[in-house]
Amino acid sequence: MPNLEDLPGTDVSFWVRSTDTTRFAPLIDDLTVDVAVVGGGIAGLSTAWEVVRTGRSVAFVEAERIAEGVSGHTTAKVTAQHTLIYDRLRRKHGEQAARLYAESQQGALERIVAIAGELGLDCDLERRPAVTYSLDPADLAELRAEAAAARDAGLDAQYVEETGLPFTVAGAVRVEGQAQFHPRHYLLGLAADLSRRGGLVFERTRVIGLREGEPCRLATETGATVTARDVVVATHYPVFDRALLFARLAPRRELVVAAPLDAAADPGGMYISHSEGKRSVRTAPLADGRRLLIVTGEDFTPGAADVAERYRRLDAWMHDRFPVGETVYRWAAQDNDPSDRIAMVGPLHPGARHTYVATGFGGWGMTGGVMAGALLAGLIAGRSPAWAELYDPGRVWSTLKEAPALLRQQAEVGLRFVGDRLRTTGVDTVADIAPGAGAVVRIGGRRCAVHRDDEGVVHAVSARCTHLGCLVAFNDAERTWDCPCHGSRFDVDGTVVHGPAVRPLEPRDLE
Questions:
Q1: pLDDT tens across 199-251, in order?
Q2: What is the 3-state secondary structure (H, E, C) of 186-254?
Q3: Closest Cα partner for 387 from 80, 147, 146, 181?
Q4: CB burial class (10 A; 0-12, 13-18, 19+) of residue 126?
Q5: Do 19 and 188 contact (CB within 8 A), yes or no?
Q6: Closest by CA position to 417, among listed 270, 303, 311
Q7: How confident is the model at residue 422 (pLDDT cuts 50, 70, 90)?
Q8: pLDDT tens digits for 454-508?
């Protein structure tokens, strides 16, 4: 079992560490509003803020603390360049789809710039080019095609062979006019303005039930009920999935390391690799005049083994290629990849009249979440933006074209559901679990998720995820129980850390 003290940096997001903790109260009493928004990240907060500006009353409800989940662990690139997306969109769905995607994503970027200016938010907003690069000459045709497709879609894109990176690349797509920012400075400013406009913000209020109707009703863990004409589910992974959207989403976890860098060595842009293993790079300003280099990579499915070793590989890559100081932060982000690579924003299911969803941003939630806020506010007000059909969760045209990817994705989930029950962890008894380690052990005919903390105290919970019943696996770097099927995560005591699960893992008495 790895010693967490040997891992690089402090286990905390720079965005969270550099901002104050929010203190919004939990919802205790029943409440009636026009619109209820569930989920405290950029999609939910953007939706609530856009809606309250239309004069509607809004309740914004988060299970933990706002902007501390996925939006507090992002790399916070604000860009319409989502690796190689435009050539694929043009080939599979036509030039109009590519243009609408570029228009909506670049529009969301400009919306962030406008809001930050309007509200006077000091969120370290910087205009930077976004660059997708490859080290492999075999990828050059793809890169050239992407540059042409992105340019035809309306972006200021070009194919280049020189970048600001301190190593040689074979080629790259460079898109001008993109941006980066401090996500929590922006989002907490948005939340403050939401409150000033009469929006109600509640934290530590997990929503556990949804009854659709006219009106809709939300049940919460605190016992309070929210009654609303319209409900938006913006919980990253939809906790209420009436349209089986989980069948079209694949959870992905990735690691982040960060270290200080002299300003003179700043690569001057936002970078992401196309092949040879994902590596994403950006910088952020530090108070002492230096920059913080933020490197993301080592993608894996939640529940995969050897997360600690993945951190070490990512950290070694950063130090091998950049003249950085000692690593100061490490954290992890989680994303949901839709089978067709297009976010799902719109009615919760085909028959929905007053319930909406925003999910499947595939790692590009900053522009995706702001786009979702504008789109959903428009739908609630009876307006349909030009790109609403592109993001409609019920889109049949896209699902049919992506059938092979969809079937492959669900086959992997099926293998997990069955295979993990047949596979052994190599740990036969609780006594075999070392301090700091965890394993799924069969006890009394039941599979238990057992963790022994650093003091030797054993914590045992059910190994069956409360979402759809897949078996969880131990994350050795973050010390959590992670579900490989749909990405739910739990603390070692069974508490829900990340949905779609809304109920904790049941405790187990090892006696």
A1: 999 999 999 999 999 999 999 999 999 999 999 999 988 888 777 787 889 99
A2: HHHHHHHHHHHCCCEEECCCCEEEEECCCCEEEEECCCCEEEEEEEEECCCCCCCCCCCHHHHEEEEEE
A3: 80
A4: middle
A5: yes
A6: 303
A7: very low
A8: 888 888 899 999 988 899 999 988 889 999 988 899 998 999 988 888 899 999 8
